[in-house]
Amino acid sequence: MPLVDPLNPSHSPETAELAKFFNETLGFCPNSVLTMQHRPAISKAFINLNKAVMANEGRVTSALKRMIAWVSSNATGCRYCQAHAIRAAERYGAEQEQLDNIWEYRTHPAFSEAERAALDFSLAASQVPNAVDAKIKKRLYQYWNEGEIVEMLGVISLFGYLNRWNDSMGTSIEDGAVESGEHYLGKYGWEKGKHDGSSY
């Protein structure tokens, strides 16, 4: 069982309305958001931040944002967020070859140099201690402008919050996320881990 049980989706009508956003991104409302409902101000603020961060403003595509989220979640080890990020990347049009080879983004030809720079930035920014340095900055600016870098760091920071929330909470993972995790990440050893509903 998770540290705190999620509440029913209908617990807060305002949160339920806002959470329709996740029906588009994931096909279901995540248990993490349903747990945040214990303090509705947190769930509402999180949903609005998520919508702002994940908005498609241009060249940092919705699919790339979800791959950035996956790299960040992989770096921190949150299996719940890894599965959610890869599922959302799939739903937002990431190329099949990228989904199948996300672990090899640094060398696989399905990824452009601009995408590699963004994903390396995600990896460096998600490490403890933080590994963003002048070399990462120089490489980013070869492909991306300041606004786009802000978008990327927004995704990385949002998933920093989610990775801490879900790994500490032991959030029970939903069937749809398990399906995507097993399909795209299982060959690399992905499993539900503490998110199987029986960890605490």
What does the model show?
It is a single chain. With 200 residues, the protein is an all-alpha fold. It has eleven helices and no strands. α5 runs antiparallel to α6 (79-91) and α6 packs across α11 (175-185). The chain is globular, with a radius of gyration of 16 Å. The protein starts with 12 loop residues before the first helix and ends in a 15-residue tail after the last helix.
Give the C-alpha Rg.
Answer: 16 Å
Helix content bin:
55-70%
Largest sheet: none
The overall strand count is 0
Average of per-residue pLDDT values: 95
Quaternary structure type: single chain
Give the helix/strand class. Answer: mainly alpha
Protein name: Carboxymuconolactone decarboxylase family protein
Please describe the topology of this protein.
Elements: H1 13-18, H2 20-25, H3 31-36, H4 40-54, H5 62-76, H6 79-91, H7 96-100, H8 113-126, H9 134-143, H10 146-169, H11 175-185
Protein name: Carboxymuconolactone decarboxylase family protein
Please provide a brief summary of the model:
This protein has 200 residues and is mainly α. The protein contains 11 helices and no strands.
Q: Main traits of this protein?
A:
11 helices, mainly alpha, globular, single chain, 62% helix, 200 residues
